[in-house]
């Protein structure tokens, strides 16, 4: 999903809470957090009793596979306890798509099938660049 809107950060995070989200994962790099004025996101999430994880990934890039596997292990545990997770980058398709699709693969989906399902749910191609697509196909 795309990042919460800077000018309505608190309102957007409250909307996550109303939609049943229990855990927010931000993939923004520190420079993006500064540029988009998102410094308060973690604190606002906590004020609404939402767990918050910062897992920075460079735009149009892919995460370190071992770090992603660790994150996905934690997310799988959270999901097994009934968590509802929102994953965001800036536009909500590249980095967020890569992480979400990798989590689907961890749950037994084929890479191609997972990308189709995620793209349909988002209403646009996910992930967005060849590097991310190649990463998904090699993720296991």
From TrEMBL:
<protein>
    <submittedName>
        <fullName>Dual specificity protein phosphatase</fullName>
    </submittedName>
</protein>
<dbReference type="InterPro" id="IPR057023">
    <property type="entry name" value="PTP-SAK"/>
</dbReference>
<dbReference type="GO" id="GO:0016791">
    <property type="term" value="F:phosphatase activity"/>
</dbReference>
<keyword id="KW-0378">Hydrolase</keyword>
<dbReference type="InterPro" id="IPR029021">
    <property type="entry name" value="Prot-tyrosine_phosphatase-like"/>
</dbReference>
<feature type="domain" description="Tyrosine specific protein phosphatases">
    <location>
        <begin position="65"/>
        <end position="122"/>
    </location>
</feature>
<dbReference type="InterPro" id="IPR000387">
    <property type="entry name" value="Tyr_Pase_dom"/>
</dbReference>
<dbReference type="InterPro" id="IPR050561">
    <property type="entry name" value="PTP"/>
</dbReference>
<dbReference type="Pfam" id="PF22784">
    <property type="entry name" value="PTP-SAK"/>
</dbReference>
